[in-house]
Amino acid sequence: MWDAGVLVKEIQGMRDDGHLSDALLRKAVRTIASSDERYDWVGVYLVGEGEELWLHNYIGEPTMHAKIPFGKGVCGRAAAMRRNFNIKDVSKEENYLACSPDTKSEIVILIRAGDQVFGEIDIDSDQQAAFDEDDEIALISVADKLAEQLAAERR
Ligand code: SME
Q: Probe ligand 1: pick from 63, 75, 88, max atoms within 8 Å of CB?
């Protein structure tokens, strides 16, 4: 399991040096994508205008889902319901937006400060049931650090 604590410290260091959320979000996606071979597609969606998610940056194959309405797919449901998802087998999901035919499981972790949802980290894996509680804990710690900066910029 990769060490999310190192990434959280690096992101805080970037904040201390004056970097804004754009740089932090790109750093997080790059680092997470290279941290674990189970992570085949890693991206961040941000809440755009209205109830819609807009793809901010990603590593992996291009996706047709650059904009996702709240409620649509796993990502849209996470934003609408304000909760994380760990989908062990995407073929069993009725409300699902496929990015790649190779994807077997997916995890979505909200970037949030309390009730305010700024966006989410979305990871697809070609392995079934690729994500466990350790992934969730690691990704939540990174997402919470990213949310600190997004909250600070919107004050
Ligand atoms: N599978 C997601 C869509 C985003 S792609 O995985 C990049 C969903 O169902 O919302």
A: 75
Residue 86, helix vs strand vs coil: strand
Q: Does 155 score more than 90 pLDDT?
A: no
Q: Ligand 1 atom closest to Cα of 41?
A: 7
Confidence of residue 87 (pLDDT cuts 50, 70, 90): very high
**Which residues contact residue 27 at a Cβ distance below 8 angstroms, ignoring those fewer than 6 apart?**
7, 10, 11, 14
Number of alpha helices (DSSP H) and beta strands (DSSP E) in the chain: 4, 6
Distance from the alpha carbon of residue 95 to the mean position of ligand 1, in angstroms:
10
DSSP structure class, residue 52: E
Alpha helices, DSSP H, located in the chain: 4-16, 21-35, 73-81, 133-153
Q: Would you say the pTM of this structure is higher than 0.70? A: yes
Q: Whose CA is nearest to atom 3 of ligand 1?
A: 97
